[in-house]
Amino acid sequence: MERITSQKQKIKQHLELRQGITPMDALRLYGCFRLSAIILKLKEEGMKIVTVLRTQYREEGAFHGEVQFAEYWLESRFKKEHAQAYNFNLANSGANMPVPKAYFKKTREYYESNAQQNFEEI
Predict the structure, then answer these.
(1) Which one, of 16, 6, 79, lies nearest residue 37 by Cα?
(2) Where are the beta strands (DSSP E) in the chain?
(3) pTM of the full predicted structure?
(4) Coil, helix or strand at residue 9
(5) Nearest to 73 by CA among 33, 100, 109
(6) Calpha distance 63→66 (Å, rounded)
(7) How many angstroms separate the CA atoms of 102 and 36, rounded?
(8) Is 80 exceeded by the pLDDT of residue 54?
């Protein structure tokens, strides 16, 4: 087996073998300070990567409040891991359930209005 030495190779393997990766994961696991730059290079090489914006409340030291960060997933893994939530929301029964934006090719309203029309026809 070939030894993986570059951060780009490590991030690529992480996306292929594990779930998503955040900038904190990349820093802690691989010493990578610029995850977004590596993700851009991987996308340019043809990898299909989904970006999900996350919000989390933090209470660390003097900082208290919400922080936003990106989480990157390989598209095929993302669809597989989030299929239940996505399908649940398309049925229009989970309107308040947050669905990651990156999965939608069109606006959320487009899918929800089509789902509602299909239910009215039955």
Answers:
(1) 6
(2) 49-60, 63-74
(3) 0.62
(4) helix
(5) 100
(6) 9
(7) 16
(8) yes
Of 122, 84, 116, residue with least CA distance to 100: 84
Is the pLDDT assigned to residue 85 strictly greater than 80? Answer: no
Q: Which of 43, 117, 72 is nearest to 109 (CA)?
A: 117
Q: Following CA atoms 104, 106, 107, 110 in sequence, which dihedral angle do they give, to the nearest 10 degrees?
A: -110
Burial class of residue 73, CB neighbours in 10 A (0-12, 13-18, 19+): buried
| Structure confidence by residue, pLDDT tens digits, 98-110 | 555 554 556 666 7
List Cβ<8 Å contacts ≥24 apart for 28-32. 31/7, 32/7
Q: 23-30 and 35-44 are packed helices; what angle lies between their axes, rounded to 10 degrees?
A: 100
